[in-house]
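Q: What structure does this chain adopt?
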Amino acid sequence: MNYKKITYAILPFLLVAFMQTLTYWGNQWYAEMAGTIGVDYSFVFKAFNDNVPFLAWTIYPYTIAFPFWVLSFFYIAFRSKKNMYVLLTVIFVSFTLSGLFYFFFQSDVQAWRETSGLFARTDLNFTENFVMTIYNAAGPRNALPSYHCMMSWFCILGARMDKKMPIVSKTIIWTLGIAICISTQTLKQHYIIDLIAAIAVAEIFYWVLRKSKLVQWFENQFTKINIKWNLEWDESIK
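A:
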């Protein structure tokens, strides 16, 4: 195996991790420190929101999202340098816009979470306790757009770009990506507008940026560093 088909993507991945930390966790921290109360967007498509059931077991697809995103990013990178840099560019711009939206127009889903019926109980089972742990870890803010949905859709975009990806791999990525998006609803973590906005942001920036000069700029910058650190993959050498 040519490990440079993986190593060249390490630094781009670290940029993605940094942007996710800055824009999501940074805004969570700031909102906590500032005592910011976000807007509850339950009024958007309220009839739909009111009919979404709470399903505690969907915490499992929700939490496997984290290794799923990492593995998908490196798998996409392993198969195509071009696709990885397109995805990197889309992620960078999408995270930047979302982070600014969180900062200036904070959202909140605490009231939505409380409809789960877990908060007033002392007899929670293992799975329900797991849900409460995630509630406490993530906080109710940064809901619109949903990062869980957005990052899962980035994985789907990567699968869509790769026309030669094995059907099994495509099926797994599509299935897990959609399952994670659904879980954000059935766990009362996000309203439907959060899901719609996340997919819309990912799709819009994909179509706007996929052939832009910014993609080539990112590739050029990382290629210089990767060559210097002996991490670069020459895609022309199979």
